[in-house]
Amino acid sequence: MDYYQVLGVDKKASKDEIKSAFRKLAHKFHPDKNNGDEKKFKEVNEAYQVLSDDKKRAEYDTYGRVFGGGAGPGGGGYADGGGFGFDFSDLFRGGGGATGAPDLEDLFEGFFGGGRSNGRKTPRGRDISIDLQISFSEAVFGTSRKVLITKVGACDTCKGTGAKKGTSMIKCEQCAGKGKITESRRSIMGSFTTERDCDKCQGKGEIPKEPCGACYGMGVLKKSEEMDIKIPAGMDEGEMIRLNGQGEAVAKGVAGDLYVKVHIERHPVFRRDGSDLTMDLSIKLTDALLGGTYDIKTLDGNISLKIPQGVSHGEILRITGRGVPLDKNRRGNLLIRILIKMPSKISKKTSDIIEKLKDEGL
Question: Average pLDDT, stretch 319-336?
Fold first, then answer.
């Protein structure tokens, strides 16, 4: 077998001429084609593997079909699963040359479910986030805030349709209203049918008869929007609120989400411990010994707190139902830590009284 005759080239043919001849014959004799010839295809492949390699070509020109390296020219075929041992990317690079073969990258993208396949996901807008500062009381009981956000949103003029006001949508001619375009391609691996979203209507099957003048038919545009954000009761510092579909919009798709990060101002009196509120209360020594009553201003009104006789320093008094709301009917507790104020100076009279208490064993 004369490799030059197999490819139909002269012995002085350049590499480009050999490659061009191989491409033409490989497509002509490929076994997957109706008029293919596996035997001739193997011969063409064998000839190309030798003549495209400078070392092997020199050996062939000198000795004929005698080669080293253990990889003889007849070792192609289907055994390696790669298709007769030649480089597919080399064969199809640049659109397949004069034969009009499809680009291999496009072929594999469609075959393995790339961005053009029928598994294409619906476009989704970008998520956005903002920081919001609220008071301690608002974090405990909940509140709502109006904020002005600049983002890409649905066009108010056309309500996101992309059509001029007063006009209608019409069937997309490119996909005949199906929203999908089916393409069939032939390759060395056989015939493949792929389905992709129509790029004219973005998979919707219809387009505006007349585009909206505000958004130019896109259905979305950048604008400022006032939003009412509800802060639920019991928020913690740094906690996030997710508002589905309130992020940036995207043409022919779904909007992203808005994330609100809550920051809480410190309170001069109260602290939070889970569902409970805590505070410190300083009382006089005499009230600790004899008991007393203190008026306390809480987050939701005043209460009168009775100090029991003989209360200890650091003791916790519990007021039920004055903490963080758990639901409509339940709340945590208010925990009051008692701090006894000790006098820094005492008079002679007070000193004499204390001495008498000392004699009583107090």
Answer: 93
CA-CA distance, 280 to 339, in Å (whole number)? 7
Say how far apart CA 255 and CA 250 lie, in whole Å: 6
Mean pLDDT taken over the chain:
81
Both structure tokens of 344: 């820094």
Q: Provide the whole-model pTM.
A: 0.55
- Give the pLDDT band of residue 106 (cuts 50, 70, 90): very low
Measured from the Cβ of residue 237, the count of other Cβ atoms closer than 10 Å reads: 13
Three-class DSSP labels, the chain:
CCHHHHHCCCCCCCHHHHHHHHHHHHHHHCCCCCCCCHHHHHHHHHHHHHHCCHHHHHHHHHHCCCCCCCCCCCCCCCCCCCCCCCCHHHHHCCCCHHHCCCCHHHHHHHHCCCCCCCCCCCCECCCEEEEEEECHHHHHHCEEEEEEEEEEEECCCCCCCCECCCCCEEECCCCCCCCEEEEEEEECCEEEEEEEECCCCCCCCEEECCECCCCCCCCEEEEEEEEEEEECCCCCCCCEEEECCCCCCCCCCECCCEEEEEEECCCCCCEEECCEEEEEEEEEHHHHHHCEEEEEEECCEEEEEEECCCCCCCCEEEECCCCCECCCCCECCEEEEEEEECCCCCCHHHHHHHHHHHHCCC
Per-residue model confidence as pLDDT tens digits over 307-324 = 999 999 999 999 999 999
Q: Provide the CA 128 distance to its chain's centre, in angstroms.
A: 11
In this structure, what token pair is assigned to residue 25? 């014959």
